């Protein structure tokens, strides 16, 4: 493998594909073959086997969405500091979307993009750890851009076009997202996590509101207080507790949307 | 000498031409050896670095004084003694998965050969999916955790009989 560089701006190498199984798979294969560099971005007009959490697929119409994977050298962070990268990607997606769709854009813990009560995008980060160090990360982002029909998809997803009433250029937005991510990543490495963490907290979906959570077999209404610096959801219900993603489920008012976060 | 210093030392030796180095401090003694093929290897790569990095935990794990491994009884080589086995541990708190997705085969099975860089499992932590690479060359002799179970930081995941 080539010596990973921290200095190529993210998106300086921008691969644009007509159609691919999954941009994350493409980037991960490149890493395993020793062909990827920090900053390489992979954009696809169509993703035929997009990945969601543990095999859940992400459906996107051809040419109508932002489908992007960014190769990051995360070695300045420890494997136990992964939330810092996760938050950095989420805040970057938020900033891009907020610029066009306005203030109702939020981050739903841990890293979905929401507009009002509707999902506008998702993030899937895959990474490689060897010899105790965090060697590579592939940050995959999917954002609904021009798609207006979401037949068969639960939970009323929303696209940028539905919000703004006009078409957008998905590859151009992907390039903008790379530039935003690069600035945030540089800031994280040079100035630390404080600013990204603050932005994440300020824009957290349902912060300060009661939501129904499921913890094991028990359901309860918890007041969302925020997230901890290592990414655990802090909810208050009598006493304050914090949860990792595999410990609580978020139960939406809309039954279609319930399920693992 | 703490773990961090040992890691630094291994990195240094790995980049050097030193074949073997022993350091003694009071009742502590550590020997780090490079495998011959890695000493002569000109192009350094991540894959080449890893086996050396693993040479250390064995001597370091010995209580004190014991010089590197005693000559092994060759007759017993087929039956790996527990003490020879290397443990692959979890680098983080999370959920342990043996396959890339539910419809894929396991990354490794008991009896499979692994080498540095070979992915042995995925640990999911906070919706982030981490492929965990083996740091050693050898054969998987035991899988210690069930698929899709929670694991703690440093929890043993696999036992590997070193090659």
The rounded Rg of chain A comes to 18 Å
Global mean pLDDT of chain A: 88
Tell me the series of helices and strands of chain A, N- to C-terminal: EHEEHEEEEHHHEEEEE
Distance between the termini of chain A: 34 Å
This entry's quaternary arrangement is: heterodimer
What spatial form of chain B do the alpha-carbon principal axes imply? elongated
Treating each run of at least 4 consecutive H or I residues as one helix, how many helices of chain B?
Answer: 4
Show unreliable segments of chain B.
37-78
Report the sheet-strand fraction of chain B: 25-35%
Structural class of chain B: alpha+beta
Largest interface: A-B, 29 and 33 residues
Query: Which structural class matches the secondary elements of chain A?
Result: alpha+beta
Approximately how much helix is present in the residues of chain B? 10-25%
Strand order of the largest sheet of chain B: 3-10-8-5
Helical residue percent of chain A? 25-40%
Structural write-up:
Chain A is 25% helix and 33% strand. With 261 residues, chain A is α+β, with helices and mostly antiparallel strands. In chain A, strand 9 (218-227) and strand 10 (233-237) form a beta hairpin. The longest helix of chain A is centred in the last third of the chain and has 22 residues, at 170-191. In chain B, 20% of the residues lie in helices and 31% in strands. Chain B is built from four helices and ten strands. Chain B has helices spanning 3-15, 36-40, 46-55, 57-61, and strands spanning 20-25, 28-33, 86-89, 94-97, 113-114, 119-125, 128-133, 138-143, 149-151, 156-162. At the A-B interface, helix 2 and strand 6 of A face helix 3, strand 4, strand 6 and strand 7 of B.
